[in-house]
Design goal:
By secondary structure, this protein is α/β, with parallel strands linked by helices. The longest helix has 23 residues.
């Protein structure tokens, strides 16, 4: 941006806080079309009571179906913000790291770099600087950055020891990571609850920790990561996948309501929502993702806040790359992440008010 442009952006932007929220592997198919009828079955979705699930979440009209499944995204974001990624309407949001699985995806949207060296989900400290780590070094944000994460590898992806800001995880973290304090009861509940997956918690614990962070730390930049959607999909449990997606939407709505009730955040906060990768198509490949499943490169993104034009579901726009998320998070605050990280992709101008004529 340049120092003069950055100063002007900071003065012009109404956003003073930004929250990035992600959920692992939630398909753009459900977000834009609603629940898929073929997957509400014993054969393809391992669903027992199909009639009940259909009555709850499926509608013959896809627009009605998506509104039932995601009432906040379609009742609030679609009216006051933007949703990107509906390929049927000429809006593509794509993973560009070529791997289409978690560590490469989280790295890409957090750091702005599709790093070819990252080719596994192993726990190694990320050498790339993420946008929250960078914000934590900037005047006005130092000590006002935090993260609440589900997947056990994320503290390594964020490079907690180097990043310096507090992180909540229900799992062990790299030595030197600053742990975010939470009520003792949460830690006591988390320990015995690790009975489903080895590295992912139930998202309800993330929800509690995220609200605690907002209430007590009052961060200007917060990252929250949900995880259940990916694991239920891998197990082929479509009902659980739908319910975790629906609960994710409910969390977004409750979070937004809470933010608007607090003077520090009301009308001064931008919310960015996205995923680390997509998934394959129904009826079989929806359970998986990766390089061999081309459709899993397609993802989605939503933005809501005072500096994002209320254009709703976008159509006929240029390709958006996953790597653009990091600089977008900073740009909403009027900050220039690209100046510090020239390799990072530029912001998504479509969601910035400064790119549109008023």
């Amino acid at each position: 941006m340049g120092l003069l442009f950055q100063a002007q952006a900071q003065a012009r932007n109404k956003t003073r806080n930004v929250i990035l929220v992600t959920t692992d592997g939630l398909r753009q198919e459900e977000v834009f079309q609603g629940a898929e009828e073929i997957l509400i079955s014993k054969q393809y979705g391992n669903v027992g009571k199909t009639n009940e699930l259909k009555a709850e979440f499926w509608r013959s009209d896809p627009q009605q179906g998506r509104e039932v499944l995601f009432p906040f995204l379609w009742g609030t974001v679609a009216k006051h913000g933007q949703l990107l990624g509906n390929r049927k309407r000429g809006s593509e949001v794509r993973v560009t790291n070529g791997r289409n699985f978690s560590y490469p995806g989280y790295n890409e949207f957090l750091t702005g770099i599709a790093d070819p060296k990252i080719d596994s989900n192993d726990k190694f400290l990320n050498t790339n600087t993420n946008v929250f780590e960078w914000l934590n070094t900037q005047p006005g944000y130092r000590g006002k950055v935090a993260a609440v994460v589900n997947w056990d590898v994320l503290p390594w992806i964020l490079n907690g020891p180097r990043a310096g800001f507090p992180i909540w995880s229900g799992f062990d973290v790299p030595p030197g990571t600053r742990r975010m304090p939470v009520p003792r009861a949460l830690d006591e509940l988390v320990g015995p609850s690790k009975t489903l997956w080895s590295g992912v918690l139930l998202d309800t614990f993330v929800r509690y920790a995220a609200f605690h962070a907002v209430d007590t730390l009052k961060p200007r930049a917060l990252y929250v990561s949900y995880g259940e959607t990916d694991d239920w999909a891998h197990e082929g449990q479509y009902e659980r996948y739908l319910r975790s997606a629906h609960e994710f939407d409910r969390f977004l709505g409750d979070l937004w309501k809470r933010l608007q009730s607090m003077p520090q955040y009301r009308d001064k906060t931008s919310l960015v929502v996205t995923v680390d990768h997509g998934r394959g198509p129904a009826p079989i490949a929806w359970k998986s993702h990766g390089r061999e499943i081309a459709d899993s490169a397609y993802m989605w993104m939503a933005v809501l806040g005072p500096d994002t034009p209320a254009l709703g579901e976008r159509s006929g726009i240029a390709l958006v790359r996953q790597a653009q998320v990091a600089a977008t998070v900073a740009a909403l605050l009027g900050e220039d992440f690209n100046a510090a990280s020239p390799q990072a992709a530029p912001p998504v101008v479509e969601v910035l008010r400064s790119s549109h004529r008023e």
